[in-house]
Design brief:
By secondary structure, the chain is mainly α. The chain has 3 domains: 3-59, Ferritin, core subunit, four-helix bundle (Ferritin); 64-129; 134-168, Rubrerythrin, domain 2, CATH 2.20.28.10. 66% of the residues lie in helices and 6% in strands. The chain has helices spanning 3-32, 36-59, 66-94, 98-125; strands at 136-139, 145-147, 164-166. A hairpin with a 5-residue loop joins strand 1 (136-139) and strand 2. The structure holds fe (ii) ion (2 copies).
């Protein structure tokens, strides 16, 4: 594959991925404003953008074996909480941008938990076995990730139990 096409696939993957998340956020806003058809349109097109993003990612050769994928995911999460988010939090403090600081902090704390999950998966996958994991719940406010029962109160953002989504 030519270098330029490789670069283009990466750029297209980034763009489609961001469009997906942006449209899902726009769909939530459309629901809030009572535009239910517009919300559905955003969700449909968001789904299509996911398919495009996945196709680009596959053609980059970036979807490997599960063991390799978990190794990459573990490394990515670790880089985020050990380097990227601490730097971003420092800068947000210097800029006195408290909203950005909070969103970086919530992500940073969750990434530590994510790295632990992937570390656990790494151990069993190395032996060719699936990871043992109970029900997984995500705080819809801050992204806090918990195995087992959702807590009465999110330890990261303080949201109530009803804020937790269970992942199928
Ligand atoms: Fe993460
Ligand atoms: Fe939370």
């Amino acid at each position: 594959m030519g270098d330029q096409t490789l670069k283009n696939l990466k750029e297209a993957f980034a763009g489609e991925s961001q469009a997906n998340r942006r449209y899902l956020a726009f769909a939530v806003k459309a629901e809030e404003e009572g535009f239910t058809n517009l919300a559905r349109m955003f969700r449909a097109i968001a789904r299509s953008e996911t398919i495009h993003a996945h196709n680009h990612l596959k053609n980059l050769g970036a979807v490997k074996s599960s063991l390799e994928n978990v190794e990459e995911a573990y490394q990515g999460e670790t880089d985020e909480f050990s380097s990227m988010y601490p730097m971003f939090m420092d800068q947000a403090k210097r800029d006195t941008n408290n909203d950005a600081l909070k969103s970086f902090f919530w992500a940073n704390e969750a990434e530590k938990i994510h790295a632990d999950f992937f570390d656990k998966a790494l151990k069993t996958l190395k032996e060719g076995n699936d990871v043992q994991v109970a029900d997984l719940h995500i705080c819809s406010v801050c992204g806090y990730t918990v195995e087992g029962e959702p807590p009465a109160k999110c330890p990261l953002c303080g949201a109530g139990k009803e804020a937790f989504e269970t992942i199928e």
